[in-house]
Write a structure and sequence with these properties.
Structural class: mainly alpha
Distance between the termini: 13 Å
Strand content: under 5%
Shape: elongated
Radius of gyration: 14 Å
Number of helices: 3
Helix content: 55-70%
Length: about 90
């Protein structure tokens, strides 16, 4: 279920009008986790941080399409957090 929310969030941002037409690439970050639970905790924390930053971006974006894309992606990030922490309805 978290994977579907992640894909929906990715798609929401992918079609934001102000993004460049080429793919954005992230620098590789390697971290070592010993358990699946540790990975899930890290992804849950990251998704909550991502949601907050997307909400910040929505507030300052001048284009209504960008605002909507950021808010939609933020909601999907919140959903991922909820699914991974067991807070989902």
């Amino acid at each position: 279920m978290a994977a579907a929310s992640a894909a929906d969030g990715r798609d929401a941002v992918l079609f934001a009008p102000s993004l460049p037409p080429h793919r954005l690439q992230m620098a590789g970050i390697e971290e070592s986790y010993n358990t699946v639970e540790a990975v899930a905790d890290a992804v849950a924390d990251l998704s909550e941080l991502l949601a907050a930053r997307l909400e910040d971006a929505a507030r300052i974006a001048p284009d209504p399409g960008d605002q909507a894309a950021c808010l939609a992606a933020a909601q999907w990030a919140h959903d991922i957090h909820s699914l991974l922490t067991g807070d989902a309805p």
